[in-house]
Design goal:
Helices cover 23% and strands 28% of the residues. It is built from 7 helices and 11 strands. It has a 7-stranded mixed β-barrel. Strands 4-3-10 form a 3-stranded antiparallel sheet, with no helix packed on it.
Length: 188
């Protein structure tokens, strides 16, 4: 069993997370969620404008936040900082339990990637949205209450430690190891 970290131990990892690259990082892991509770780590994935990560349950799951139950395009893809995933999960094999699809070594903070900012990963382009992504009861069960408090704290929200919600603006293929480029003035 993996030992859960205390809030102080988690906060001791903030400097390492803050040292994430700001302009160009790396796609460290791709995770598809074919069904509730299932995870598949992929070397390559396809990001599709209507399906999200092809084979992921995002579209079939719909949204609890909308009256219609239609999938929320602004939450089509969730991206988590790989350094934060490594810290809370303690073991790379446990990263997928966070429930995100893309894990990147990149500064995902609101200051670095405000809503509307585009990221190029492989041949795909995604855009950060305003939708919050916070630690929930599933995250608490998997990583502990201290981890939820850590990612949901003021600093955690500013750094988007729990992850960043995004939508796909250009479909394409993404591969583990691909560079992740942040658009500057709309250019990559």
């Amino acid at each position: 069993m993996t030992t859960l970290l205390t809030r102080a131990e988690l906060e001791a990892g903030l400097d390492h997370i803050r040292a994430s690259p700001m302009e160009s990082g790396t796609l460290e892991m791709i995770v598809r969620r074919p069904e509730v509770g299932e995870r598949e780590m992929l070397d390559e994935g396809v990001l599709d404008l209507s399906e999200g990560l092809v084979g992921d349950m995002w579209q079939r799951r719909g949204s609890r936040d909308k009256i219609t139950g239609d999938p929320d395009v602004d939450r089509q893809i969730t991206v988590m900082n790989a350094r934060c995933a490594a810290l809370v999960a303690r073991d790379r094999g446990r990263w997928p339990l966070a429930g995100d699809q893309l894990y990147v070594d990149l500064d995902l903070s609101v200051a670095n990637i405000p809503p509307g900012t585009r990221l190029q990963i492989g041949s795909a382009v995604i855009e950060a949205t305003t939708e919050l992504h916070l630690g929930c009861s599933k995250f608490q069960t998997r990583f502990g209450w201290s981890a939820v408090l850590f990612v949901n704290s003021r600093v955690g929200r500013e750094l988007r430690l729990r992850g960043m919600s995004a939508k796909i603006v250009t479909g394409g293929v993404v591969r583990t190891g691909d560079k992740v480029h942040v658009a500057v003035d709309g250019e990559f």
